[in-house]
Amino acid sequence: MSEKVKGSGRQKGSTYATVDDLAWFDLKNYAALTPPNSRVAPDFTHWETIIRDRTQLKHMLAKKMKAEVAPFFDQIKSAPLRPLGFGKGYNPAPHPTDTTTVRLTTTNRMKWLIENLDRIEADTRSVVDEELLKIDEGIFGDFAHLTLNLCASDKQIHSDFKNWLRAWRKHTKPVVGGDFATKVRSWASTNLVPYMDLKLFTLLTGKSIRSDRRIALIQPTFNLTERDAHGNRLSKSLPLVFTFETAEIIRHQAESAKRSFQGK
C-alpha cells in the first residue's frame, strides 16, 4: 500500500495537496536505490541519471516551463527511477587539454561555487577549498581550485606544485572513492530522491505539502521531533546534491568504477 499523507488543509494564500493529489507517491517505488548491503557498491551510472534528470526539471521549472515539465513528471509518477531521456547532452563540454586528474574549471562549477559560498556567507578573503571542506554535502573534496602562474617556467611550476600538493595532503583528510559511495548511500537511506520529487511536485502544481507531512511520506516511522530535524537536513542537501556538477562528478565515479572492474 502506498505511503500517503493523511488529511489536507488550506491557509490563506496557499493551497495544500490533498490525498488524491499525492496518490501517485509510493515509497516502495524508490527501494531499488538502496544497495542490499554495505558491501555492494552503489550504481553510480543510475545515480548520475537520476540527479541529472531532476536537476534539469528544476532548471526548467525555474524558467516557468511548467507545460514542458508536466509530461516528464508524469513519467516520474509512474516509474520514478526510469531515465527521462535527457542524457549526457547536458554535461559540461570537456576541454581538449583536460586530463584524468587535471581539468579546467567549467562555468557550471564556477556558478556552483559562487552560489554555495554565498549561501554559507564565506569571507571574501578566505580560501575556496577551505570553505568547501565545511559543506556537509559538498562533493568537490577531491578537486582543488588553484591559480597557476603560466609565466613561470615549467621547472618552477612542477617544483612548486609538488611542494603544494605535499603540504595540502597533510592539511586535509585523504579523499578516496569510498567517500562517494558513502554519500550516495546516505542519499538513499535518507530518501533524498523521493523528497526531491515531492519538492518538484510543489513547484509544478503550486500546491504545498507541510514539511512534517512531507517527511511522514518518506520516513513514516519518524516521530514529530525526528521529522523536523530530518526535514531541515534534507532541505539543506537539495540545492547541493541536485546540480549538473554533482551529476558530472558521479559520472566520473561511474567511469572510475568501470575502469577498476576492467582492470581486475
Morphology: elongated
Would you tell me the overall average pLDDT? 82
- The helix-and-strand class reads mainly alpha
Order of SSEs: EEHHHHHHHHHH
Distance between the termini: 43 Å
Helix percentage range = 40-55%
Q: Helical segment tally?
A: 10
The main β sheet shows up as: 2 strands, antiparallel
Strand content: under 5%
> What is the strand tally?
2
Low-pLDDT runs: 1-12
Q: Which value, in Å, is the CA radius of gyration?
A: 21 Å
Give a verbal description of the structure:
This protein has 264 residues and is mainly α. The chain contains ten helices and two strands. The chain has helices spanning 44-62, 66-78, 107-119, 128-132, 154-171, 178-189, 192-205, 211-218, 224-241, 244-263, and strands at residues 10-11, 14-15. Strands 1-2 form a two-stranded antiparallel ribbon. Strand 1 and strand 2 (14-15) form a beta hairpin. Helix 8 (211-218) packs across helix 9. It is elongated.
